[in-house]
Amino acid sequence: MTAQLIDGLKLAHSLRAAMRERARQLEEDGVKPGLAVVLVGADPASAVYVRNKLRACSECGIASRQHLLPAETSEAQVLQLIAQLNEDDSVHGILVQLPLPPHIDVRRVIESIAVDKDVDGFHLYNVGALVIGQSVFPPCTPYGVQLLLDTTGIDVAGKNAVVVGASNIVGKPMALMLLQREATVSICHARTRDLAQYTILADILIVAAGKPGLITGPMVKRGAVVIDVGINRLADGRIVGDVDFDSVRERAAWLTPVPGGVGPMTVTMLMENTLRSAHRAAMQHAPA
Ligand SMILES: Nc1nc(=O)c2c([nH]1)NC[C@@H]1CN(c3ccc(C(=O)N[C@@H](CCC(=O)O)C(=O)O)cc3)C=[N+]21
Ligand SMILES: [Mg+2]
């Protein structure tokens, strides 16, 4: 078997084309959708991701502004900026790029973002909403994965879904979303013994561990859907996922490439959440 590739870049661009029309409509109705991106420090990977997000904004007709703060910026200064953005009616989404420098308390910063502008879906309120299946802003990476899964036409209900990686921004919310769709979900992580014992049972395998080559062909059930969330930059400059592409491609039915798989969808779902937030703002200001 040779897996069909799921083209995340193509899906991302077609979704963004439709979003552009929604943004135009909102603007006509008096609300220009806007996203504020806050970047503290000069991490080169973060700079690439932020650039991709700003480019996607212009592709979708969303106004964007970036706040580039030096690495030494104090937590109080970041909180002050967020307070301003919370009050600013031209801003519908606030994204604070992670990771933050170690002297800044990430939770305190995220919890200071207005719940209805938390387009990353990282605020405790939005995390709680996700747990009970009522989320307004699903976190962008698992949300994008869900749309990639949808393109295969496979019904998640009753399937064995295995998530490798238990981070707050990918693994845990991903598992919750799959559970919401009635998959039987296992979460594996760095302390899991005999990873292959779990992965071999997966009809749907989502890998977000940050370890190049972690998943090889013999660990994958024949005919599985494999979604590679990993982004690893090798010494030679190549970008690879967590999945050993060539060997897994011989076992899986569907596989996402890296780059061009999950990454562009993460950015696209950020646009979706920003538009949704702008839409809610437009509803609030519409005449009765
Ligand atoms: N508050 C916050 N929200 C995030 O959503 C967030 C974050 N912080 N910190 C870092 C991670 C990572 N992330 C990606 C965004 C775009 C690509 C992306 O565009 N990838 C392309 C290109 C990859 C490349 O050239 O390096 C691809 O996979 O094809 C990947 C990963 C968002 N994150
Ligand atoms: Mg109209």
What do these coordinates show?
Belongs to the tetrahydrofolate dehydrogenase/cyclohydrolase family. It comes from Duganella guangzhouensis. Its EC number is 1.5.1.5, 3.5.4.9. Catalyzes the oxidation of 5,10-methylenetetrahydrofolate to 5,10-methenyltetrahydrofolate and then the hydrolysis of 5,10-methenyltetrahydrofolate to 10-formyltetrahydrofolate. InterPro entries: Aminoacid_DH-like_N_sf, NAD(P)-bd_dom_sf, THF_DH/CycHdrlase, THF_DH/CycHdrlase_cat_dom, THF_DH/CycHdrlase_CS, THF_DH/CycHdrlase_NAD-bd_dom. The protein is α/β, with parallel strands linked by helices. It has 2 domains: 31-115, Rossmann fold (3-Layer(aba) Sandwich); 140-263, NAD(P)-binding Rossmann-like Domain (Rossmann fold). It has helices at 8-28, 44-60, 75-87, 106-112, 124-131, 140-151, 171-180, 195-199, 245-249, 262-285, and strands at residues 4-5, 34-40, 63-69, 93-96, 160-164, 184-188, 204-207, 225-228, 232-233, 239-240, 254-255. The strands form 3 sheets. It has a 6-stranded parallel sheet with strand order 1-11-8-7-5-6. Helix 1 runs parallel beside helix 10 (262-285), helix 2 (44-60) crosses helix 10 (262-285) and helix 6 (140-151) crosses helix 7 (171-180). The mean pLDDT is 97. The chain binds 5,10-Methenyltetrahydrofolate and magnesium ion. The site of 5,10-Methenyltetrahydrofolate has 18 residues, from helix 2, strand 4 and helix 10.
